[in-house]
Amino acid sequence: MQIHGFNKTTLLDYPGLVAATVFTGGCNFRCPFCQNSDLVLDPMSQPLIPEEDVLSHLAKRKGITAGVCITGGEPTLQPDLRDFIIKLRALGLKVKLDTNGYRPEILGSLLDEGLLDYVAMDIKSSPEGYDKVAGVPIDMERIKESVHLLINGNIPYEFRTTVVRELHGEAEMKGIADLIDGAERYYLQGYEDSDRVMCRGYSAYSKDELEIFLKIFFEKVKHVEIRGVE
Q: Could you give phi then psi for residue 64, rounded to 5 degrees?
């Protein structure tokens, strides 16, 4: 596993658990508002953390750290992802995967083997707007397959969208609602501008504005919520 970041303790990344977060490098998307542009564009410019060091630390924290969130970048690009997850589970840790859902064959295999305990999948936009927001040409059937796997699976999951004023409007929200119809949980996340984003010049909606978008999902999703906006 190419690990380029390791947050040893988090109360935010894995719902309900004291966890650690592992950051992988590389991504198959180029979302212009991405907050981890260094991991996406030039992962090898970031320090490489030996897998053994991560596992050794987690072993010492047994009984305190209960789970690990694997994020990125896009973790499903890592050829050693499955083997790493098996090592985490051997330590008695629950595993949460953050993914853009563009490799349903990897997601499906991990789910079939019972190697995941929670999945958070980013939904970038409506099908019509996906290319623009993902920054690359998108085969929507791949996204739809991952959505289907999670909705029809047997582990907790969430869908989430970082909402950007210049990229998302009512039409995009309605398209997302149709895409994830029947989902258990969906979160609208506020955009935050920073020096780390891939492209500057984007802006956020206010919480009141996001509340209006939230209503679009009430009949489609069991639990909807705004996250990361005061």
A: -110, -60
- Residue 197, pLDDT above cutoff 80: no
Sheet of strand 19-24, all strands in order from the earlier edge strand to the far edge: 3-10, 19-24, 67-71, 94-99, 118-122, 157-163, 185-190, 223-227
> What is the spatial distance between Cα 198 and Cα 58, in angstroms, rounded to a whole number?
32
Q: Which residues pair with 71 in a beta bridge?
A: 23
Give the CA distances from residue 1 to residues 42, 98, 137, 183, in Å, rounded to whole numbers and listed in that order. Answer: 16, 15, 27, 31
Digit-coded pLDDT (tens) for 146-191? 999 999 999 999 999 999 999 999 999 999 999 999 999 999 999 9
Tokens 């410019």, residue located: 45
Q: Where do runs of H (alpha helix) occur along 19-169? A: 37-41, 51-60, 81-90, 104-112, 130-134, 140-151
Q: Nearest CA to 184 among 227, 225, 216?
A: 225
CATH number assigned to the domain comprising residue 214? 3.20.20.70
Count of structural domains within the chain: 1
**Chain position carrying tokens 């260094």:** 38
DSSP string of 112-130, one letter each residue = HTT--SEEEEE--S-GGGH
**pTM score of the predicted model:** 0.95
> 103 lies in which domain range?
3-227
DSSP 3-state of 212: helix
Measured between alpha carbons, how far is 29 from 31 in angstroms, rounded to an integer? 6
